[in-house]
């Protein structure tokens, strides 16, 4: 019986580890102390849920505020400037920002860096008889003046039990898993 449980735990660990991961990059030439004021652009959703970008952006903003390393451009002010720039440059709301748009937004908001995001997965997924969240995304901090990527991180994980037999450490909701991943992403910054 013990051998069977060990095999089940090993298989579950392999499955869980294949569904999660963090890859990050921090530009070695970047002076992170320079970035006092940052803005957070609208996250692009590549999922079936067109509002996934907005949902994850709100969770990320909360975690970024808790991080307390930056003065963050207020969301409403940043959104207004971003929407004006998108309209003037004919950039769709579902598209990312180019370096010219980032520079213009930064100049108008006083941000030295702008964080952009792309959401790849944001859904509930059936695992056996239960449903667990699946979230994956990429974030970048882009220098306003140069347009260079200062920081880049890609995160992805499926919720569910970390110890299948015990059901210990489960993540049941999209918001709970999103918050955990955003916290983990910010630790790479």
Write up what this structure looks like.
- It is a single chain.
- By secondary structure, this protein is an alpha/beta fold.
- It has one domain (2-187): Rossmann fold (3-Layer(aba) Sandwich), CATH 3.40.50.
- 38% of the residues lie in helices and 28% in strands.
- It has five helices and seven strands.
- Strands 1, 2, 3, 4, 5, 6 and 7 form a seven-stranded mixed β-sheet that branches.
- Helix 2 (52-67) packs across helix 5.
- The longest helix is centred in the N-terminal third of the chain and has 17 residues, at 2-18.
Highlighted features:
5 helices, 38% helix, single chain, seven-stranded mixed beta sheet, globular, 189 residues, alpha/beta
In short:
The chain is of the alpha/beta class and 189 residues long.
3D shape: globular
Helical residue percent band: 25-40%
Rounded to an integer in angstroms, the radius of gyration calculated over CA atoms is 19 Å
Helix-strand makeup class: alpha/beta
Might you state the CATH topology name? Rossmann fold
Number of domains: 1
CATH homologous superfamily title: ABC-type transport auxiliary lipoprotein component
Second-tier CATH architecture: 3-Layer(aba) Sandwich
> In whole angstroms, how far apart are the ends?
45 Å
Tell me the series of helices and strands, N- to C-terminal.
Answer: HEEEHEHHEEEH
Mean of residue pLDDT values: 86
Detail the poorly predicted runs. Answer: 1-19
Per CATH, the class reads Alpha Beta
Task: Specify the number of helices.
Answer: 5
Structure summary, number of beta strands: 7
* Biggest β-sheet description: 7 strands, mixed
What percentage of the residues does DSSP assign to strands (E)?
25-35%
């Amino acid at each position: 019986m013990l051998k069977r449980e060990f095999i089940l735990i090993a298989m579950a660990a392999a499955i869980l580890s294949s569904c999660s991961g963090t890859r990050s990059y921090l530009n070695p030439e970047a002076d992170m102390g320079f970035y006092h004021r940052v803005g957070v652009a609208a996250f692009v959703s590549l999922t079936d849920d067109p509002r996934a970008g907005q949902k994850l952006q709100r969770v990320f903003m909360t975690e970024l505020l808790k991080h307390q390393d930056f003065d963050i451009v207020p969301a409403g002010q940043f959104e207004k400037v971003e929407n004006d720039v998108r309209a003037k440059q004919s950039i769709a709301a579902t598209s990312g920002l180019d370096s010219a748009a980032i520079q213009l937004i930064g100049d108008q908001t006083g941000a030295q860096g702008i964080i952009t995001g792309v959401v790849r997965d944001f859904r509930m997924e059936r695992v056996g008889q239960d449903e667990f969240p699946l979230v994956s995304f990429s974030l970048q901090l882009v220098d306003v003046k140069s347009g260079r990527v200062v920081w880049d991180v890609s995160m992805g994980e499926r919720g569910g039990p970390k110890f299948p037999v015990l059901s210990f450490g489960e993540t049941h909701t999209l918001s709970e898993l999103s918050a955990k991943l955003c916290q983990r992403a910010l630790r790479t910054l």
